From TrEMBL:
PROSITE patterns: GGDEF (PS50887). GO terms for molecular function: ATP binding; endonuclease activity; exonuclease activity; transferase activity. It comes from the Bacteria. This is CRISPR system single-strand-specific deoxyribonuclease Cas10/Csm1 (subtype III-A). InterPro entries: Cas10-Cmr2_palm2, Cas10/Csm1, Cas10/Csm1_subtype-III-A, Csm1_B, GGDEF_dom, HD_domain, Rev_trsase/Diguanyl_cyclase. Belongs to the CRISPR-associated Cas10/Csm1 family. Keywords: Antiviral defense, ATP-binding, Endonuclease, Exonuclease, Hydrolase, Nuclease, Nucleotide-binding, Transferase. CDD domains: Cas10_III (cd09680).
Length: 800
């Protein structure tokens, strides 16, 4: 198919380094630009694409005979490649090394020393097959064999598409295979994937091309390589009111709508970003990141940029205000970038300051919601109904005036909602009905189709003319009119379809509602809400990468964090839980029947479920995150668990879990080594049963809970031991003196109890030793003894 000059530039930039993949697989010694040209020549007939890749190094370009527009295109990709690298290029390409985990580069201060160097094996980026980083470098022959197998699989799949492949499908295919291949293994730190480097190069090339197109008379080479002029814009979009919107649901029917609302907001974010790309006529590679309620777009600093962005923000705010009455908003901020912002080795890196600047602007605009809409006169007009009205049973929002119910039902603007044994008619909004239906459909959804405003076909309304369709199985090719996004897989189908793939956390839904879910709890019939996120993430992005905080590394770090939360955590659906073993593979009840990931992406998560599994789920997530980040002591998680009865509105539980998480974030304790205090640490903790606990201490408390639980279940001790432990804790709490009189009273009480329960005597002696010496915990054990006591009491409680 014929390509425009701009399309040829984009494809040449996207594939400019594909020769590095072949070079490592076949151990060839030709320069990688020539190998890239050979790969492209086998796929595309357009000579421009091949030539752009062949001459994307300045030294090769200077020796070439390229002239006119083709030389100009090669110069643009050459500069884009250099800016995407962000570091001085080395000449040698001989060292064969795997991708180093981006987390090995993160360091905050000196307190924890240097993080370990870990290496990312070749593998798949999905929750089922993801290979964790390894500390040992593979043997060169073994590494080359892995590259060869990976390369052959890539060629085989690429051949199924041929030259008809859609550019966005090609981008998805590159992500599947290049996410674990280093961009430059000959550099000192090969921690940027070839995928991130390639897509950023393509994004920069298109933006630079658009910028230079506004000055067609300028053809000097120096014009392309000018790094002092602000030629780019970094745009950030932030959806506001997410938590208030998701959790503002009555408890009846909440679980059916909860997942739908959460996923709807993720689609809203994706579509808002794509609508901005559509208006700026930018490819998907320019969408740097979209998760956690935020998107980042790289755009050209053209004359029409400001007006396009102003109108986009205003129209988006109008649509959201009309549909959600201000519950959800969208704010946009941007900063200008020049070439110098991408390069350099100073600390802080120039691009770090730009990320911080756009973040500060976003936070300021959050304090001015709907500012793009407020300048219009009708914004201040009275609105809303008067008199007797009907409101949504689930959310409390206005539906219609009393007496209009039949008309609105027929028009499917409102929907009936009838509870068992209730005669009073109740209604829910169209939005709430769609959220429930979406939540049901997601249980078996394979793909989502996004239809832009100018695309044909029907679908569910999404955003400002955009629609979506859900497919529970592979759709018929002829029926797809828009972008087909495969869910929680890295697969795409052969053909000319416009395809991509994305992760979303919690791709399952358990049956029933909060009342039914509470019946599955062990002991106390309670539910729990768990919130967790990465500690010090703002500081990590600002300072953690030091002088090496290039644009590519910042994006790579964001991408990998999002994969852990939105992708890898879906592994929970295949795991089981038991009181004694916690979360594991083989024993106990299936977790997918006891928890639901409401949201997981970016750097945080929110999970609801039966109360008894959540502390173990939190500990499992913390352990897996530690493996995922290669044991980096600067990459930690904190979380909070709130327990609640099934009748409590969800937003109350969410608020309480948020407060518990903040308590964990504020938790400071003294760390001892061999009885000597060596440091004061904060965060890296979980708040459970209203008490902040370090992860190490949670492990110790869990072990004691298991010992108490098993002894009670086996009748080796009565539940009266729990009251004794409560008493010891209460006496300690009165004065909080580690050397207070509670010590001798506890000694006397536990000794008597041991004489009365010989089968549990050894355990009680060990418990007393831990109480008095705290050899296993970071905090004083006596200050935590109520946790295993209450934990066990709740697990062994008999409720009808």
């Amino acid at each position: 198919m014929p390509y425009s000059e701009r399309e040829a530039l984009y494809l040449g930039a996207l594939l400019h380094d594909i020769g590095k993949f072949r070079q490592r697989a076949l151990d060839e010694h030709l320069k990688h630009p020539l190998l890239s040209a050979q790969v492209i020549d086998a796929l595309f007939e357009d000579e421009r694409i091949k030539t752009i890749a062949a001459f994307h190094h300045l030294e090769d370009l200077r020796r070439s005979n390229l002239k006119g527009s083709l030389r100009r295109l090669a110069e643009i990709v050459c500069e884009a490649d250099s800016l995407a690298s962000g570091e001085r290029r080395r000449d040698t390409e001989t060292l064969q090394r795997p991708l180093q985990s981006i987390f090995s580069a993160v360091r905050l201060g000196e307190t924890q020393g240097n993080p370990p160097e870990v290496w990312q094996p070749i593998g798949r980026l999905n929750d089922e097959y993801y290979p964790f980083p390894e500390q040992n470098l593979p043997e060169p022959a073994q590494l080359q064999e892995r590259y060869l197998q990976h390369w052959q699989a890539f060629l085989q799949e690429l051949a199924q598409f041929g030259a008809a492949i859609h550019p966005d499908t090609l981008l998805a295919l590159l992500k599947k295979y290049l996410w674990c291949v280093p961009s430059a293994s000959y550099r000192n730190v090969p921690d940027i994937s070839l995928y991130e480097h390639s897509r950023l190069t393509a994004a920069l090339a298109v933006c630079l091309y658009d910028f230079l197109q506004e000055r067609p008379d300028s053809s000097a080479q120096s014009d392309v390589f000018d790094r002092n002029e602000n030629r780019f814009r970094l745009v950030c979009g932030d959806i506001t009111g997410i938590q208030r919107y998701i959790y503002n649901i009555a408890h009846k029917g909440a679980l059916r709508a909860l997942k739908g609302r959460s996923f709807y907001l993720q689609l809203l974010l994706q579509v808002a970003a794509r609508e901005l790309l559509r208006r700026l006529d930018l490819p998907l590679a320019c969408l740097l990141y979209a998760s956690g309620g935020k998107f980042y777009v790289l755009a050209p600093n053209t004359s029409r940029f400001s007006e396009v962005l102003r109108r986009f923000e205003q129209e988006a705010q109008e649509w959201l205000l009309e549909r959600y009455d201000g519950a959800i908003g969208l704010v946009i901020a941007h900063v200008e970038l020049c070439g110098q912002d991408f390069v350099g080795e100073q600390h802080p890196h120039p691009i770090t300051r730009k990320w911080a600047e756009v973040t500060e602007k976003i936070e300021q605009k959050k304090r001015q919601p709907f500012s793009a809409r407020i300048t219009q006169e009708d914004f201040w007009d009275p609105w809303g109904p008067g008199g007797s009205i009907v409101t949504c049973y689930a959310t409390g929002r206005y539906l219609c005036r009393t007496g209009e119910e039949a008309e609105k039902l027929q028009a499917e603007v409102i929907f009936p909602y009838q509870e068992e044994n209730e005669a009073t008619p109740r209604y829910i909004s169209q939005e709430q009905h769609e959220a429930r239906e979406l939540g049901r459909a997601l249980r078996s959804a394979r793909a989502i189709e996004l239809l832009s405003p100018d695309a044909p076909g029907d679908g569910n309304a999404l955003f400002n003319g955009w629609r979506f369709r859900i497919y529970e199985g592979p759709p018929e090719v002829g029926n797809v009119q828009g972008e087909l996004i495969w869910l929680n897989t890295d697969e795409v189908r052969p053909g000319a379809l416009h395809q991509s793939w994305m992760f979303y956390g919690g791709n399952w839904a358990f049956e029933g509602d909060f009342d039914q879910a509470a019946e599955r709890a062990q002991g106390s019939r309670l539910l729990g809400a768990l919130r967790m996120d990465v500690d010090n993430l703002g500081q990590i992005f600002r300072d953690g990468l030091g002088a090496h905080a290039t644009f590519s590394r910042v994006v790579q770090l964001s991408t990998m964090l999002d994969f852990f939360f939105a992708g890898y955590l879906n592994r929970l659906r295949r795991l089981r839980w038991s009181v004694c073993e916690g979360v594991q593979q083989n024993q106990g009840d299936q977790l997918k029947d006891m928890i639901q990931i409401v949201y997981a992406g970016g750097d945080d998560l929110f999970i609801v479920g039966v109360w008894n599994v959540l502390p173990d789920v939190a500990q499992w997530i913390r352990r897996e995150f530690d493996r995922f980040t290669g044991g980096n002591p600067y990459m930690t998680l904190s979380g909070g668990i709130a327990l609640f009865p099934p009748k409590l509105p969800l937003y109350h539980a969410a608020q309480e879990a948020g407060r518990a998480e903040e308590k964990a974030k504020d938790f400071r304790r003294h760390v001892r080594r061999n009885g000597v205090e060596v440091a004061t640490v904060s965060k890296n903790a979980l708040s459970f049963l209203e008490t902040p606990i370090s992860w190490n201490d949670l492990e110790v408390l869990h072990q004691w809970m298991v010992r108490l639980y098993q002894a009670i279940q086996e009748d080796r001790v009565s539940r009266g031991i729990l009251g004794r432990l409560y008493g010891i804790y209460a006496e300690y709490q009165q004065h909080q003196n580690i050397w207070g009189r509670w010590r001798w009273r506890a000694c006397y009480s536990l000794a008597r109890y041991a004489n009365q329960h010989k089968a549990f005597a050894d355990d009680l002696l060990q418990l007393a030793a831990e109480l008095f010496c705290s050899t296993s915990t970071e905090s004083d054990f006596v200050a935590l003894i109520h946790i295993p006591a209450r934990w066990t009491e709740m697990l062994t409680r008999k409720e009808e």
